Amino acid sequence: MSKPVLPQDIMLLICEELGLRRQFGTLFNCSLVNHRTASIAVEQLYGILEVMDPFIFYTNQSIRLWRAIILSSLGATRFPYCAYMRALSLGSLVECLDDIRSDAAARQCFFEGPMQDFLVLQRGYESVKTTRKRLPPLDNPAITSKCAESIIQYAKQLADGDSTTMALTHLEASVFPRDILPTWLSCLGSLTSLQIQDGSVLGVEAAGAITAHCPNFSELTCFHCSSDTAAEDVAAFFLALRPNTLQRFEILSRNNLSGATLAALRTHAKSLRVLDLRSLPASTTKRIHILSECTALERLVIEKDTTDGSDLDIMTVTEMVQVAEWLRSCKALRELGLHHVRDALPILHHVLPTPEIRLETLHIQDWHFASEEVTKATWEALGHQKRLKLLAIASQDQSTNDLVLSQNPELTDSICHLYTLTSLNLMQTYVSSDEISRIATALPGIEELSFGGELIDDSILEPLSKLSKLATLTVTAVTAFTFDNLLRFAERLYDVGNQGIKVELLNQWHEAKLTTDEEMRLNMYFADHLKGQIAISYPNDPDELHEADFSDSD
Fold first, then answer.
1. Is the Cβ–Cβ distance between 394 and 428 less than 8 Å?
2. 409 and 381 share a domain?
3. How far apart are alpha carbons 500 and 506 in whole angstroms?
4. pTM for this structure?
5. Which of 139, 157, 265, 330 is such that its CA lies 20 to 30 A from the CA of 15?
6. Which of 373, 413, 364, 431 is closest to 391 using CA atoms?
7. What is the rounded average pLDDT for all residues in the chain?
8. Do residue 426 and residue 533 come from a single domain?
9. CA 328 – CA 226 distance, rounded (Å)
């Protein structure tokens, strides 16, 4: 009697669910069952590669993975793996090439057979014979470009031949050849997201290819845009896209974006949902009000370049009011970050009390001095944001002593009334034991807590031990905790059912140093009973030897 066979549609549903759960190992095992199951499992498996943690792969596994993907673009594998990929992350391929650059066996494994056509050596080394002791350097950008070209062209051929839509929606790379990028984009009809190292490769040509061939394109992330023509190039890109199609734009590092770039970005005012503008020049930060038509935002981060020491970011009263009115009009805004924006407090003074603004995440870091009246009113207004889940407040002017919680009782009061908070970061503030005790008592649902300050004593351990959901506790303040109270703290955490907690005491006073045996007992209790860990550092311990104490002199 034949064994019952699981219907194909049920197997499809199972594999799709495994894909949603990112169960790479289970999908791999399913692909080994038989050819019928493999045809379903493999498609899901390669479709989730973009979210795999690179650290789970050994070098040999990474080599085999990329080799299989590239060979599939040559039709040299049983399944067209590259056609199943939803994200082509070429940065991962570059890392793989870096790993094998000095490993003769790994290089031979990667480039043997049909892969030999993808081997490109750096200029001047083409005629050097490869041996185990002499490995001519690889031309990683050229190799990556050839591999990407093969994958993209093959996926396009499959889509054209079968009249099906490609799975590939996300393209990421550290280096894009500016002259080739438009060609690649024209082949990726399903592309929705582009992540690049240098935004300077963008321009009218790339935007034209997206407009003509990528109807669902909506997300752009650039690590930096620092060329002399970056402002104009990126502005031209925004203007050449179909208006109101870009939903996410992120610039993560140094850039030369200008007011003209912001004005061009305004052509997507109705569609923009996420705007993350990091390291803006001071003069551009001052002109951020240009984006006031972008009122559909759900996430907004503004960061001034910390290396720009000019005063060009000082806003006039009119400009501050314009920014505040803009933020107040963003009714869907849920995440807001103002980093190194000197006028942050006067702006928030007007925004936080607005009933229609219901923030869930708020980051404020390094603001300039504001009057006592404005500061007090801002901290009081913070208490209106009853839906806040994550709050991070770092000192003005990047100095811990500039924000002393005891001198700002309105801030402590507001924090204690934010009952939905799960994450509170006060690491760059001056906090006392009394304030932490009060906060811990008022916010029993807190999961992540970090704070700074000077001397913190054992009195905070009891209220902290009642936090059954506390998963991460990071203390940069000077602590003088005793072993007995730390152990009692751990035992109370166990009593309230806390499991998996990670505690870091980064500045324990050297005169309250625990013995080796005491630290071992604490570590064992955290590991065995709480399934967590504790780490204690003594940065000012005079008994500790540091590298600076050693000298080559006699």
1. yes
2. no
3. 19
4. 0.88
5. 157
6. 364
7. 88
8. yes
9. 32
d(CA 155, CA 199): 25
Q: Residue 396: name the closest of 385, 383, 411 by CA.
A: 411
- Same domain as 427, residue 304: no
Q: Report the pLDDT value the prediction gives residue 419, as an integer from 0 to 100.
A: 96
Nearest to 327 by CA among 300, 363, 309: 300
Q: What is the reported pLDDT for 395?
A: 72
Domain with 449 in it: 405-540
Rounded to whole angstroms, the Cα distance separating 38 from 36 reads 6
pLDDT the model gives residue 369: 76
Tokens 């061939």 belong to residue:
213
> What CATH number is attached to the domain comprising 458?
3.80.10.10
Residue with tokens 């179909």: 242
- What the block records as the tokens of 294 is 């972008």
| Domain end marker among 388, 422, 454 | 388
Measured CA to CA, the distance from residue 487 to residue 491 in angstroms comes to 6
Please state the rounded mean pLDDT for residues 528-539. Answer: 96
Determine the Cα–Cα distance for residues 155 and 170; give it in Å rounded to an integer.
Answer: 13
Helices (H) and strands (E) in the chain, counts: 21, 17
Contact of 236 with 228, CB cutoff 8 Å: no
Cβ proximity of 510 and 479 under 8 Å? no
pLDDT in tens, 420-463: 999 999 988 889 999 999 999 999 999 999 999 889 999 999 99
Pick from 357, 388, 419: which residue ends a domain? 388
